[in-house]
Amino acid sequence: MRHIACLALKNNLSMPRYAIIILFVCSLSLYFLNLSKTDIYILDEVKNSVCAYEMAYGSPLFVPTFNTNLRTDKPPLHYFFMEIGYLIFGYNELGARFFSGVAGIVLVFLVFYYTGMLLGKKTAWLTSLVLLSSTFISIQFRLAVPDPYLILLLFLTLVHLYLHIENKGSVLWLYVFAALAFLAKGLVAIVFPALIFIVYMLVVKRFTVKSCLTVLNWKGLLVFLLIVSPWFVYVGIKTNGAWLEGFFLDHHVNRFLETREGHRGFPGLAILYAWMAVFPFGVWVFSALFKKKALWIRNKFLLFSFISVGVIVIFFSFSRTLLPSYISPAVPFLSILIGHSLKSKQIVKNRFRSRLGMALLIILSLTIPIAVYFSIKQELPNWNFQWFKLAGLLLLPVSTFLTLHFYMNRNKWGVVYIIFIAWYLFNISVHTFLLPDLLNKNAVKIATEKFNLHHKNDSLKVVAYKNFNPAFVWYLKSPIEVLPDSSSLNKYINGGRNVLVLTDHGQKNDLYVNKKLFLVFRQKELFENGEVIIYANTKQ
């Protein structure tokens, strides 16, 4: 590690001090500005945030549950960090998301650190700008989900795998970070490093039994088991194996082989997601990926990064369930490839790839603001579009004129900095004005405020009938009893208490025919086909 530190200091400390300050200020503002002002409403955020709280205060302790039911979707690492956040900030949005933002800042600096060590300070600087301008990354590190932790830890795992292969680092660090990544998301922490190692060693023609044995280090395996085993053994015992079966079989094997929650994967979609994840600089991804063979041979870390991106994207190309966040571990390495490409003047040269990238950038900068505007107007026709809320959207088309000016004059740094500033400010405006205003007008919050559900009321019982929006559990800060059939519902209606029944469009007819219930609330979900529907046994 001392050798690594010396290399890093040599490459990075020569960077001007203002560069470090810029990285810190930009990452801090992107991942923390208004972090607590956007309500937790998205399904994954709701379930992860509530599960972390119930895991700490429910029974049995440290067993993941949502609405008191066993949740087998994710391992515990992000839950533990959320629990610390709740202890510091309370059971709220900031507590749930705080360490996701911390992970984002740490990732930016570690990508800068290792890229500078292995590829030089200019590539490190440009790679950091690619990461900080990415709308996808700015969203990922503001969510209360496990992906921020996985992106950071898998990046460290793969970098230390490369360092070990090239005799520049200790194998124990590889196993430490792989174990933590396993606690963040599961088997991908083993599968991806293994596949990337095999492909890389085959490409460089060094794949032998001896090279495999150097990675399969018994001390490293022991460290891995010491970190991973305690919680997995504990939760397996406490749930009689139910959690282990649900996690490894249902949420690994079955999710890969079957389409879940309507997120159908198909060949090519993973490539599209990866490309979109590094916008705006992703428009020059072709220049980053298609290089002369001599360059790949001369710079092995570039080759390793290319293989890392390829393995992750190809792997998920065969998955029947695919979300944009699945390919997120590839983003740091794709950013490195783009950052290295930006170091040359290829993006402003009069070549087809350069012109194609510029044309795509102009199209995106003009169409994204229009698409965002009309999407919001369709969902919220009465939304108040104030000028300062629109400023971020207008930055993109306005910036294209300056970008085009520098491009025509072959000014690479002018092109890079204008794109970075415009998209950085666009991302800031999205997180500061657009998303808080949009998500805070969701149907669950409106219903919660209308019926004053966030305040405990002993005279009112809130129940759910079959399916309902899980965000109610977050807003009410307490579990909600789910009634499976009409007979169990009638017991509450006839019990002499005021009852609110939460449901969705799937069961509205079942409740509609019940003459003891009145429809008191109905509103469409934001950007979804479903509705939030509430019945009561008294007219409200």
Structure in words:
By secondary structure, the protein is mostly helical. The chain folds into three domains: 2-344, no CATH class; 348-439; 443-536, D-Maltodextrin-Binding Protein, domain 2 (3-Layer(aba) Sandwich), CATH 3.40.190. 65% of the residues lie in helices and 6% in strands. It contains 25 helices and seven strands. The chain has helices spanning 2-12, 17-32, 43-57, 77-89, 93-119, 121-133, 135-140, 147-165, 171-185, 188-203, 209-215, 218-238, 242-257, 269-277, 285-289, 293-298, 300-317, 331-343, 352-379, 387-408, 412-439, 443-450, 471-476, 486-493, 508-512; strands spanning 65-66, 69-70, 460-465, 481-483, 498-503, 518-524, 531-536. A five-stranded mixed beta sheet has the order 4-3-5-7-6. Strands 1-2 form a two-stranded antiparallel ribbon. Helix 2 (17-32) packs antiparallel against helix 5 (93-119). The N and C termini lie far apart (67 Å). Residues 1-13 have low confidence and may be disordered.
In short:
This protein is mostly helical. The chain has helices spanning 2-12, 17-32, 43-57, 77-89, 93-119, 121-133, 135-140, 147-165, 171-185, 188-203, 209-215, 218-238, 242-257, 269-277, 285-289, 293-298, 300-317, 331-343, 352-379, 387-408, 412-439, 443-450, 471-476, 486-493, 508-512, and strands at residues 65-66, 69-70, 460-465, 481-483, 498-503, 518-524, 531-536.
